[in-house]
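Quick review question:
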């Protein structure tokens, strides 16, 4: 096997490993950062405002086992995401979000028809995971999440280029 074929094979295997580790897009990113919570069990509500490439607040503190209701509002001019997960999960999700470059996000609007299209291997860009919302400017939605145990967890926008521009925040455990 020549060097170029070896490089291609290695890249394909590493992408497969990332995909397997991340799970299907609709399969519940967030599994190692907690679990979906019940609104009736939320100990408090945190309003998170998304601006063009930053969040307010920039970090949050939670207790292990705490259920939090997030009210997420997009106050920016662009489409943004609020996604609770580990840094590794965000990295894998950013790979998937590159698909949005193919017409799902059109400036400040979402093409909902394209979000529902099969992107291959049963993947779509529906953003129906319980730990994540993708919002157009002016939209607001809720995420109810239970932080089951301490971990390396953050909230982030995985729209291409946004995380790299600093649109993420830490989840600190008390």
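Suggested answer, residue by residue:
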């Amino acid at each position: 096997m020549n060097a170029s074929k070896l490089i291609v094979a290695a890249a394909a295997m590493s992408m497969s490993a990332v995909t397997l580790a991340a799970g299907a897009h609709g399969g519940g990113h967030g599994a190692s950062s907690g679990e979906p919570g019940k609104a009736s069990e939320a100990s408090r509500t945190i309003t998170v405002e998304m601006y063009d490439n930053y969040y307010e607040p920039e970090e949050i503190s939670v207790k292990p086992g705490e259920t939090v209701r997030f009210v997420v509002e997009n106050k920016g001019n662009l489409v943004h995401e609020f996604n609770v997960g580990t840094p590794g999960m965000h990295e894998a999700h950013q790979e998937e979000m590159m698909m949005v470059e193919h017409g799902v996000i059109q400036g400040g609007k979402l093409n909902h028809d394209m979000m529902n299209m099969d992107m291959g291997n049963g993947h779509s860009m529906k953003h129906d995971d319980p730990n994540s919302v993708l919002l157009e400017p002016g939209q607001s939605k809720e995420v109810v999440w239970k932080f089951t145990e301490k971990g390396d967890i953050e909230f982030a926008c995985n729209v291409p280029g946004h995380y790299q521009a600093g649109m993420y925040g830490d989840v600190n455990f008390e």
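Why it works: The chain has one domain: 3-173. Residues 3-173 form a domain with the Immunoglobulin-like fold (CATH 2.60.40.420).
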